[in-house]
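In response to a reviewer's request, we include the raw inputs and outputs for one of the modeled complexes. The two entities were modeled together in a single run.
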Amino acid sequence: MNRSPIPILKIKSTLITSVQTELQDETVDLFQQDILTRIEKTGARSLVIDISALDALDTYVARMLTSTGKMAKLMGARTVIVGMRPEVAATLVRMGFPLSYLETALSLEEGLSLVNQPIEGFSVDDGQQGD
Amino acid sequence: MRDAGHDSSQDAKESIRIVEEADIITARQRVRATAQELGFDSFAASAIITITSELARNIWVYAGRGEVVVERIDKGARKGIGLQFIDQGPGIVDLPKVLKGGLSRGGGLGLGLSGSKRLADEFDIDTQPGKGTHISVVKWKAR
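The model returned the following structure tokens for the whole complex.
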């Protein structure tokens, strides 16, 4: 059961969630706890967060996404943010938000195919393609 | 401080009191609706909504209470949104550094104020340590 108002779905080893509500501290805390609990319970290896419903994304929410990704990583899961709108991307870059921590994909479909690729592509600092 | 809280006689101006976290969302929604009414494109709308979020949250985090005044500017060909963020909080001690970005007082990345300045078309800040902060922002609709 989710305790936050943001549903979390599971397909195979991927958790999928979509942020559609306005976020506040309490929602963020519950959401992150839900995610981590679900990763532990399901053994999920990846987390896809859809933000296509957000028409504006402030540094508060951007920090939340970054910290959720870091937490998930500590639990062994890879996080991909999908569906960022063009205006949101432009706004975040103009503000100078450091996005290096966030892995992104254009759409849910792209995000899913990204996380379903062989896991060795997901290393800490090695950009080399394995073969 | 100006009498921004008593402008209800002009229907183009509206004041939203910030006393709890949910008020930040109210301010965002008000600004989003105004941007839609004025026909802002999605990029300008996203910028002004984000500015509202950042600066209203600053009021809540640092001052605890204050107000956001939303002004709809419609002068024929020139349309825009004017915002004022007013609090009687601790003020900003090292404004030049804070405006450069990267200096956080509240555990964040310190990008709220500097980022908002970059997103705005006009940005004025009047702050006095121990007395409060008054920020005025204008975002014009692209012609």
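As requested, we also summarize the result in words. Chain A touches chain B through 21 residues (CB under 8 Å). The helical segments of chain A are 25-42, 59-74, 86-95, 108-115.
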